[in-house]
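Figure 6 in text form: structure in, sequence out.
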């Protein structure tokens, strides 16, 4: 009996002890493996979090690296918003600048010419020029002429001088021949013996013209005019360039205006005259027009 109990006891002890040790060792291993896995996962997540934060810091500091204070070599420079806006405004202002000259067109005769914008245009019943409160007569050898247009110079164009007024005027006469058009009703006289002088032959632009002068006035007011005749498209055209003066010798600080400069400015208008005959229509007379156009610049401002 005793032998059997001991064997059984030993057997039971061995079985209990072996089972207990074997089970505890496996649990410890599993626990340790699980701990290492969790630790590794946490370390990995921490590393990813740190790496993901770096680009954000770089993107925030990048604009400072390309700031105007420390420009990067080769990096494109973007203009400031204010500079861009100012450049756009400047372009708009330049686009709105008006031409210095205006083109006059008469649809009835086909005549065109250019004149400075600051000069005043008059047509129709108001086209007759005035110099020192008096009208300027036409200089055709026969009647039948009419005034098409007149351009008046500003009264304050020559400050400090005796300049009162100046003009460029166009008359036309359809009843004259080419030979009659080369003559004048009155011509410049030689102030020494009062003998009339023959008209001069001049070339204005590309057009041959006949020209004569006329002078009149008194001690207080004077007027001078130049008449130019040309035959174009079956009609005789008369171009009158004139100006009036007053005050020289009667007012202090007044100097005589440079007559050559005045006539030179008016002759610039005459040099742009063109006549292109148009077909006559049975309808009512068309109204003349003035259109804006960039052309010759007026040398004296």
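Output sequence:
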């Amino acid at each position: 009996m005793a032998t059997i109990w001991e064997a059984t006891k030993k057997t039971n002890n061995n079985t209990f002890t072996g089972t207990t040790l074997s089970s505890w060792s496996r649990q410890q291993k599993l626990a340790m493996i699980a701990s290492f896995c969790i630790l590794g996962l946490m370390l990995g997540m921490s590393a990813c979090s740190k790496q993901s934060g770096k680009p954000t810091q770089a993107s925030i500091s990048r604009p400072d690296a390309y700031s105007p204070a420390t420009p990067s070599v080769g990096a494109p420079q973007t203009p400031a918003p204010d500079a861009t806006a100012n450049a756009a405004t400047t372009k708009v202002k330049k686009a709105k600048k008006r031409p210095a000259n205006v083109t006059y067109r008469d649809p009835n005769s086909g005549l065109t010419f250019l004149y400075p914008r600051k000069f005043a245009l008059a047509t129709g019943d108001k086209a007759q020029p005035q110099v020192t409160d008096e009208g300027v007569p036409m200089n055709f050898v026969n009647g039948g002429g009419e005034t098409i247009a007149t351009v008046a110079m500003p009264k304050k164009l020559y400050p400090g001088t005796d300049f009162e007024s100046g003009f460029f005027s166009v008359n036309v006469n359809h009843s004259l021949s080419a030979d009659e058009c080369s003559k004048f009703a009155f011509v410049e006289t030689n102030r020494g013996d009062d003998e009339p002088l023959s008209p001069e032959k001049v070339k204005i632009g590309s057009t041959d013209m006949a020209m004569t002068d006329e002078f009149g006035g008194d001690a207080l007011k004077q007027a001078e005019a130049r008449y130019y005749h040309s035959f174009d498209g079956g009609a005789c055209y008369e171009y009158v360039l004139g100006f009036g003066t007053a005050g020289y010798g009667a007012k202090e600080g007044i100097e005589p205006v440079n007559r050559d400069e005045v006539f030179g400015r008016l002759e610039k208008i005459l040099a742009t005259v063109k006549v292109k005959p148009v077909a006559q229509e049975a309808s009512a007379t068309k109204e003349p027009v003035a259109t804006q156009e960039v052309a010759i610049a007026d040398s004296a401002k």
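Caption detail: Confidence is low (pLDDT under 50) at residues 1-22, 55-61, 63-68, 293-301.
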